[in-house]
């Protein structure tokens, strides 16, 4: 009987069986950031413990960094300053490599892992951050952990974990121009629900997934957790190997060929048995936009917003709450709804291909009057590459602010925040109430190209009109 990648990777990293469903798992790579690590390091200090495998531990700073004048210290926000200082001290004292401010590799933790080749197929990867699922795009088993588990990994490089079930999600059909990986994953979450993945790892496959670039696969895997699945992955294939070749932490020469051989073996067998299977068809699908307060409250840009009484019973209360917060009415469309802020960035859509896609819309156009538009590269490397291509000029000329790398307005743990009831077209992954720094602020999740289209229109727009060249804003 064939095995899934999930099972192969899990079994290869099992140190001990703790019960029928619970194992002690070795963690190949531990990624650390400033928000969830201070107490974990403190716990080690109090017990007189060392970091077990410092060479398997990598830290960066992303959530709290200002995106304007990132390197001017101390930060105005004393809490932010404290977290950064703690990480600086902890990494120094415990001998952990810190890709911090001033490092060429600083950036959002889920962006710098793959782009440096730290993330590799067949690994187990943990990080005190729910969007660790992103790294599954390369065929790793990667998941978010809490601070007490960060402590456990620091001290032992292992974790006690419940084995997950595996749901195979086949995505089929040709996507239309103007439809991106973000639209695919929003559709998946809209279909299976924000709790649909609880207890599962999602294996994404099928022709429409195989067709995606590595960066696009990261966008899909990133949002697995928004669908309730702690882990999401794509089987490694030629796209994966081509992406990894030549990256800083990837073996070279013959060692690379050997690694590819081993990585290939990690992919799910063709006769692998899954706990569940779902097929999602994307033929003819329109760009997707969220209208509510969780990522599953999503519609096609050409669709009317749902009537609460037509929704499944368990979704009605949430829909009513969403309508109250957003101030939208059932039955109408989002197209033309005025936006105040446009944000392109985050670990979902803060990579080079995202800025390229948005620039395609922005070239020769201007952000509408009254819209605040922010472009925040996910990492130093993304910023540098984008600038080498002249993308920063495109954003500047269009009226976007071009910033330093960090999480920025995705979570607003830094000075980038919404104000009042502002409505933000955002390429990030969460639209929870208050998420972007203002209790009454409102978020519409969409692809970077859709954000660009909204920015220049001054209202929610259909990017397909821009790509067909029908709009001349
Ligand atoms: C700060 C961190 C714990 C959090 C997460 O786990 O995801 C953040 O990255 C987020 O996106 O909400
Ligand atoms: S970009 Fe947003 S989702 Fe990603 S790690 Fe930062 S805060 Fe979390």
UniProtKB/TrEMBL annotation:
Cofactor entry: [4Fe-4S] cluster
Entry annotated with the keyword Amino-acid biosynthesis: yes
Catalytic activity: (2R,3S)-3-isopropylmalate = (2S)-2-isopropylmalate
Domain Aconitase/3-isopropylmalate dehydratase large subunit alpha/beta/alpha: 8-458
Stored Gene3D superfamilies: Aconitase, domain 3 (3.30.499.10)
PROSITE patterns (UniProt xref): ACONITASE_2
Cofactor info, note text: Binds 1 [4Fe-4S] cluster per subunit.
Top-level class of the enzyme under EC nomenclature: lyase
Coiled coil: none
EC number: 4.2.1.33
Quaternary assembly: Heterodimer of LeuC and LeuD.
General function of this protein: Catalyzes the isomerization between 2-isopropylmalate and 3-isopropylmalate, via the formation of 2-isopropylmaleate.
Family assignment from sequence similarity: Belongs to the aconitase/IPM isomerase family. LeuC type 1 subfamily.
Name the UniProt record assigns to this protein: 3-isopropylmalate dehydratase large subunit
The organism of origin for this protein: Desulfofustis limnaeus
